[in-house]
Fold these 3 entries.
Entry 1:
Amino acid sequence: MGKKSRKKVAAKTLSDSAIKGKLVEFIIATMHDAEEASIQRNVFLPAQGSTTNRTREIDVLLTKPVEGNPTYVVFECKNYREVIDVPKIDEFFGKLHDIGIPTQQGIFVSVNGFTPGALERAQKVGITPLILTGLTTDRLAAAVQKAFQSVIHLLADVISMAVEAKTFDGTRSAGEMLFFYNAEGQLCGSVLDLIWKQWHEGNLPSTIGKHEIKLEVPDDWRLKLDGALEHITSLSATIQVLGLMITVVGQVSQHALINPLAKTIDRYRAQATFDTSSRTYPILRFESEAEVTQFMQNRPEPLKLANRLRLPRIRLNPLYWPPSKRVSRILSAIVRAHQAGELPDFQWSDLAGIEGDDLRTIWESLWTGHPMVRAMRQAESNEERSTSEGTEPSK
């Protein structure tokens, strides 16, 4: 091999070695980065008592205040193919002694571990040995695995409702049994409002599947039957909590610092990146927890991340409830047309399409004129006012 070829090989080897060392230093610095501490890499600290301004290089230096005084933690980072033996521990011990930092504040990080003798020596002199995981086999980069992220939006679908009153004979219309009035005969809410309030406040189950629920009716709510107001004796409903899943595939790198003496994980860090450039995502529908579990188990990605989020409204097909400002205008126009005889054969199915075929409309602003929405916002306003004034909110 010629001299030029040997020089190229040496240059490449040196470059790879430098990359490996810097990589471990970067990972260690990132894993220990915190607001209350400062992290520096490749710091030169003066040797104690040196008359020649001699310095020693520190791979990673962590500085944090303790009772107003700076405390230092020194990391020695080695990305070697071989395990660390006693001489390397002694070199680090000498460096700490040279710069005047106690060995108990020295941490030796190795990628491929330590010999039993090195562990014994480290323990004797007070140095903490740690093993860094999460690199590729050539130790030139962080190992990257495929990751799967999902967000499950929970939607409460109202399947059925049951209202009982003393004079109910089973021949009443749905409109008569769904809406309630106060003592003055003014509309104050509906069965759907009571279900939504419980859902909004987190009082209904979040488990995907069917649930039978009992509802408490406010004392001043009445049914209007044949023009007369009557108390409700019982109110219940069946809801189906649906899981509407949006999924994104990405990549993740994971690193752990393992203490081989204590056999514990000293620190863990995962960093994931997902492609969220798409403006639309397909939605997967689940009707039971078993379906979700089976789907997740069948995913090939080694790392699976999942979040759950209650949607802000409930649904009585084909509408979300309470209605948004936009939908309330449409419904009002339909009611007026029906009352005027322009829609004599109006069917509930005629409302299909108002909400659209995706989840975006469920996030529209609620119609503030809706009785239940207005009452809840007034209660929230009263509570905020009472809190700011330092008084107890009225019951």
Entry 2:
Amino acid sequence: MKNLFIIGNGFDCYEHCLPTKYADFRSYILSQYPEAESYCGLIPETIIQPDGSDTMDIYEVAGYILQIIDNCGGEGWCDLEYYLGAAIFDCLHDDLDSVLWNESDKEIRHAFYNNEDRSFNMRQTFKYIKELFYDWIVDSLSIIDYTNVRKEKIAEVLSTGDAFLNFNYTMTLEEAYGIAKSNVCHIHGKVGDDANRIFFGHGDKERAPEWSDSLGADYNLSRLKEELQKDTQRAFDMNIDFFNDMNDIETIYSFGFGFADVDMFYIEKIAKRVNLSNVVWYLNTFDSNCPKKKEKLLNLGFNVSTELRW
């Protein structure tokens, strides 16, 4: 292996105009659950079935999830995953009861039990986001037409590739550019994979925030943050052979990769497996104008340059 390519979502959504942005995921949810557009306010409640199992109204679930994420802002995938680990908890906090410590014991207990119930329902609601995400991959990304999306300047660079670490769920490399499937590592899964092979979530390892005025919510919100975390270690372990075959890498090219903190886990693994003194990392022309991306690579010991052909 000589040349390694790191491919992120910008490669699909911006360079090839494929429907892979958060906005496209949002549109898919509304196409399946149109009532979610007008949903406002209330936290969905768990419904106990006659057999003792519990469920939730999926329209309410979809509406509440979109409502919270919209309040966080941002349409990039790195933004969405970041918000799942941090910003959504500020929004969720607004739906909890505030405990005033000068109130009576009865009022404090009432607020505690309310927050316990509400935070449990929040946790159950956001568990569905991964299910919705997987449904979107199955229903929408699997029917992408790759005809006429190939770009010859990009094809010229890709033709030198020996291995591809692909953060996308699509088959753009294989279908549009003819890259052999055996050369591509879809680190977070791909179209056609089972749900347990699709990785999605945040990388924030800090505890969920604890608010002194929201007594009763800490346990469920802490568990929710854990459940929304992307299991990068498992993804890495499932693809360990790909990473262990990097000792002879000489050049690395990246395109559309956001260098989000959650995904830097894999770049750190690469840095430990290559001879950094002999490797040059080439950013594409757009990314080369982002000093934060370059700084992250320099801090890991990479030599950084720019690939002017793309």
Entry 3:
Amino acid sequence: MLNFNFYNPTKIIFGKDTIPKIKNLIPESAKVMLTYGGGSIKRNGVYDQIIHALDGRHVVEFGGIEPNPDYDTCLKAVAQVKAEGVDFLLAAGGGSVIDGTKFIAAAAKYTEPDPWDLLLNASLIRDALPLGTVLTLPGTGSEMNGGSVISRHSTTEKLFFLSDHTFPRFSILDPETTFTLPARQFANGTVDAFVQVLEQYLTYDVDAPLQDRFSEGILLTLIQEAPKVEADPRNYNARANIMWCATNGLNGWIACGQPQDWASHMIGHELTALYGVDHGQSLAIVMPGVMQHQRGQKRKKLLQYAERVWGLRGEDESCIDQAIAKTEEFFRSLGVGTRLADYRIPAESAPLVAARLTERKMLLGEHQAIGRKEVEQILSLRT
């Protein structure tokens, strides 16, 4: 097992009817900004619960944070934070709203003129406003980590930061808030959670069996529970299990002492920035290609994955082929396309994405061995 540091200060409040507990989690004297997306929280009752819980508090609102939150939108929120003296942020939504709110929290404390610097160099984040979350769309795990992914649509860029300063103080996880999610959002979130686990698991063996078993447990649970939600969108237990899987998929537990990949995410970010595909869709396209292209380097873990997750026993190449096929079949069973052609993304996207990553001097994968040629080859497998 590799050396590791683990830090996670986020308090989780899980279960039905937990949103009212916000009133005991935010200081009474706080000036709170409630951030949210397109307004679904006003249709599903989450907004009313939050406002009731914060009755008597100083509350301002900032709505309209997009999927793949846009830098310029977030800067408008930063300006409002400063103008109104906000000192606590409360994000109500999925990973995009939470990611955007983390960036707002950091940018509000950044004194230099261009907060985009924070996405180029996370060490510049030395302080941030405190924030909490009410999760309504599981998948990214952003409710229990310090990461944020921000898009800059004007320049077709999508970058991320990780900082100890942007962990949520608390996160409310009420599975009932997910009952009314559109099928597409549920599917994207499930794919995101699944691939995030694979990014930390499908690398090379370092004799960390507990972390491997944690990862396999999350993957098996997602495979088991997702069809239950498809069959009955109001299945509370299945929703709860998927929500908790997604949170544990990226809160640091399964990464302890493990090498990590993240090539699928970095390549997927470029597809989203260039062609507007959903984050989960981009991962469903790229991950099977990474598995195929990197099968030699990942062979031992791929065979372990094949056996422990898909029940495929054997040591030959056909076992790996079947495991990759099963992964792709699972994504498709959720209604998520797994090929560039499914989203009318042209074949010439391969050299374009590869060139953009090269411009950023990014070498990907657990061995930093995936460069321009390899990225192009991976995407060429996904036409």
